[in-house]
């Protein structure tokens, strides 16, 4: 998947809350020039307005915002937190954050289809959540 660079994959222990988790998982995209600094705050604002729309399955979050909310170039980052991050009043847990920066409404669709295929397999997701190093985590999506 060309839209995912190994430099954008990270494994961390925890974040103090979901807002910090969003800022952490978007940081590689920001650091490498794929998104503007405001992109992470736009995602946070969207979640505050719409609820935890980014949690797409058990322990899986797909942080993203609209292209005009700060995307420079399409790219994905993957962050695995060892401890669950909880969203909303229902305390929805997430550990795997597949952050998407899409420059337009189409260029990222192949990558998103590949990610969806990986994440639909519950056994694979269980193994992904146990990843101990970046190389292993990266290989699941590459």
TrEMBL record:
Pfam families attached to this UniProt entry: PTS_EIIA_2 (PF00359)
Keywords in alphabetical order: Cytoplasm, Kinase, Phosphoprotein, Phosphotransferase system, Sugar transport, Transferase, Transport
GO-annotated biological processes: phosphoenolpyruvate-dependent sugar phosphotransferase system
UniProt superkingdom: Bacteria
GO molecular function, one term: kinase activity
CC terms in the record's Gene Ontology section: cytoplasm
Function noted in UniProt: The phosphoenolpyruvate-dependent sugar phosphotransferase system (sugar PTS), a major carbohydrate active transport system, catalyzes the phosphorylation of incoming sugar substrates concomitantly with their translocation across the cell membrane. The enzyme II UlaABC PTS system is involved in ascorbate transport.
Protein known as: Ascorbate-specific PTS system EIIA component
Organism: Anaerosacchariphilus polymeriproducens
Taxon lineage: Bacteria, Bacillati, Bacillota, Clostridia, Lachnospirales
């Amino acid at each position: 998947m060309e839209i995912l660079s190994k430099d954008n994959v990270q494994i961390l222990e925890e974040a103090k809350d979901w807002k910090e988790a969003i800022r952490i998982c978007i940081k590689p995209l920001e650091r490498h020039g794929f998104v503007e600094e405001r992109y992470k705050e736009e995602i946070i604002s969207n979640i505050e307005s719409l609820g935890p729309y980014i949690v797409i399955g058990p322990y899986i979050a797909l942080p993203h915002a609209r292209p005009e909310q700060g995307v420079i170039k399409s790219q994905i980052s993957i962050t695995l937190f060892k401890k669950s991050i909880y969203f909303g009043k229902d305390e929805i847990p997430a550990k795997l954050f597949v952050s998407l920066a899409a420059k337009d409404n189409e260029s990222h669709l192949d990558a998103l289809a590949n990610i969806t295929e990986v994440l639909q397999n519950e056994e694979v997701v269980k193994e992904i959540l146990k990843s101990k190093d970046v190389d292993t985590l990266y290989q699941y999506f590459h």
